[in-house]
Amino acid sequence: MRKSNKEAAETRRAIVAAAADYIRRTGIAEASLSDVMAAAGLTHGGFYKHFRNREQLIAEALVAAGNASADMLGKVRAEKGRNAALDRYLSPEHRDAGTPTCPMAALGSEAARSSGKTRAAAVAVVEEMIDALAEDRFSGEARGEAMVDYATMIGAMTLARIASGTPLSEEILERARKRLRR
């Protein structure tokens, strides 16, 4: 029995969401189509009804993960201010999450080595995160400050994850928060 367009769209969204979670947990290279489809509760055979290839899915998953992360940061910044957004990102909870929130902190170096649509999606995520952090995304100065903030946040989160379980990890997060607060 053929699915309705609405059901097909819901299935596609479920696959993208499962892929977004899966790649943030395991990495891009480790995300096989079979594993992603199983994580979505589907069989591998249905994949090509929704996507041309693996790269299309990975690119869409990166964008979905980036949208969620940028939305969360932008919402916290709008409601509670810039420092609250920084604190949320540079928190032990974010560091220790089984599925990291920020796809760039989880996948940045891997995305940089990717090609085509995956790399373009990663660039779009970086742009979106910068916009979410910028006090005024149309101001060159605010955008520049947001770039430095985001770069510092990603670097600090990556290093804190490497040193997780040690006092150094806590110190990295704390010093990054202090440095970025205004």
From TrEMBL:
Residues 9-69 form the HTH tetR-type domain. It comes from the Bacteria. Keywords: DNA-binding, Transcription, Transcription regulation. Residues 32-51 bind DNA. The keyword DNA-binding applies. The keyword Cell membrane does not apply. One of its GO terms (molecular function) is DNA binding. This is TetR/AcrR family transcriptional regulator.
